[in-house]
Amino acid sequence: MRVLITGGTGFLGTHLTKKFKDAGHKVTAVGSKDYDLVQGAAVRKMFKACKPEVVVHAAAIVGGIAANRKNPGRYFYDNLMMGAQVLEESRRAEVKKVVAIGTICAYPKFTPIPFREEDLWNGYPEETNAPYGLAKKMLLVQSQAYRQQYGLNSIFLLPVNLYGPGDNFDPETSHVIPALIRKCLEAKDEVVVWGTGVATREFLYVEDCAEAILLATEHYSGSEPVNLGAGREISIKDLVAKIAQVAKFKGRIVWDATKPDGQPRRCLDVSRAEKLFGFRAKTPFDEGLRRTVEWYASQGRKQAKAR
């Protein structure tokens, strides 16, 4: 298939590009330097140039808690406009399939554990990332509406927090794992961590996520949203201890309780993905952490200094 991957030069996108090419597909990976997907003219130009049969919409403007608090308007508008226009142009181009990549941030703040897809509309998302989560959630609304009215084969996937080699380690915009890895490798005496450490998160190794998206693209064509995760949670306190151990950080961990914890708990029910397209996460968490720390120590640190 001729596959267009938006966000194809980003963290998840680079792994998706390799995974789809290895599976024999003809891939065009585009990034923000190629087309500004917030602008309708740029989206139309992209479709005219690429002529895709399948679109995987992985592009997103995203960051950690601090970045979400600083940019709620931008994160809402840019993500909403990118998604709406990519799906509209997919419809107009009569593509065979659209794979819309959502976010775990779309779930209500107090969703029962484990998060089940049926609970997606039972409340408002956690406040610090609600604008981003709701903008991405509109992909599901548009996907189902376009399927109903136009017959567009569009699916919606909900990945949990990702991590792995090639992640964003910028201290201003990074998520928790790359932020902590960088701190632990660069700090001498102490590392300051936001919150109390009691919140929990679930993490999915990026290569596993790319595999899940490939499987869904090739084998799933339903209208219902599907979680992508590992099905296990860890407290931020235990996560910090693991990262400090792998990074060989011997200093103090200082908790800044004046900063928000974010969503209290995150852990997915991943049974639907296994049932519908045979996905189950393979990478043990400790192994994935080790690979990520080693990548940043050997390559990521050099790239960060070059910027």
Give a written overview of the molecule.
- The chain has 307 residues and is α/β, with parallel strands linked by helices.
- The protein has a domain at 2-166 and 203-231 and 264-283: NAD(P)-binding Rossmann-like Domain (Rossmann fold, 3-Layer(aba) Sandwich).
- The protein has 10 helices and 12 strands.
- A 6-stranded parallel beta sheet has the order 2-1-3-4-5-10, sandwiched between helices. A two-stranded parallel ribbon has the order 6-9.
- Strand 4, helix 5 (130-150) and strand 5 (154-159) form a beta-alpha-beta unit.
- The model has no long low-confidence stretch (mean pLDDT 95).
Salient structural properties:
307 residues, alpha/beta, Rossmann fold, six-stranded parallel sheet, two-stranded parallel ribbon, 10 helices, 12 strands, 16% strand
Beta percentage is: 15-25%
Q: Kindly state the number of beta strands.
A: 12
Percentage of residues assigned to helices = 40-55%
The first-level CATH class name of the domain at 2-166 and 203-231 and 264-283: Alpha Beta
**Mean pLDDT across all amino acids:** 95
Secondary structure class reads alpha/beta
SSE topology:
Layout: E1 2-6, H1 11-22, E2 26-30, H2 40-50, E3 54-57, H3 65-70, H4 72-93, E4 97-101, H5 130-150, E5 154-159, E6 161-163, H6 176-186, E7 190-194, E8 200-201, E9 203-205, H7 206-219, E10 226-228, E11 234-235, H8 236-247, E12 252-256, H9 271-277, H10 285-306
Parallel strand pairs: 1-2, 1-3, 3-4, 4-5, 5-10, 6-9, 7-12
Antiparallel strand pairs: 8-11
